[in-house]
Specification:
This protein is an alpha+beta fold. The chain has 5 helices and 9 strands; from the N terminus they run H-H-E-E-E-H-E-E-E-E-E-H-H-E.
Length: about 160
């Protein structure tokens, strides 16, 4: 993905913050998006965490060596709505960037969560099997989804890492 494409996706995911326009949102929503945008920029700047927007979903990654923890952002969980079921990838499964990695069911509809990076799943958040609502209540901490051993470190460039 080119840097320009990444910026376009990012702008779409955070309410077109980079390219202007409020998309008919309220002032409170605009301020929330602006705050999330600032947090994302700070995260990328410190290279400890990056947030990626992709179509209807946004996920975050946190690196520990060559292992990446993946979850959804607070903004994404609010867009999804209340989760009632989650299907995580199997440990040992090979995930391809941009392909479905997990699926969730909300009170409104089922959705796929796409893999941000290519790699092999080394751990899943088993707590989500009993309490999928952790994704709603603690999306960027206890509500993480899975951990993957990255296969292509060059993909991290899209995250500024």
């Amino acid at each position: 993905m080119s840097f320009e494409s990444f910026k376009e996706l990012l702008a779409f995911g955070v309410g077109k913050k980079l390219f202007g326009g409020n998309g008919g949102r309220s002032e409170a929503d605009r301020l929330r998006s602006e705050h999330q945008h600032k947090e994302m920029l700070e995260a990328v700047k410190t290279n400890t965490r990056a947030i990626r927007a992709a179509g209807r979903s946004m996920d975050w990654i946190a690196m520990e060596g060559n292992i990446v923890t993946v979850g959804v952002t607070d903004f994404a969980q609010s867009e999804l709505g209340e989760l009632v079921f989650i299907e995580l990838p199997a440990i040992g499964a090979r995930l391809e960037a941009g392909e479905p990695a997990a699926s969730v069911e909300t009170i409104n509809e089922p959705r796929d969560i796409l893999a941000p990076l290519t790699g092999t799943v080394v751990a899943v958040n088993e707590a989500l099997n009993q309490n999928p609502n952790l994704v709603n209540t603690a999306p960027e901490s206890d509500g993480w989804l899975y951990k993957v051993k990255i296969a292509n470190p060059a993909q991290l460039k899209a995250f500024g890492l």
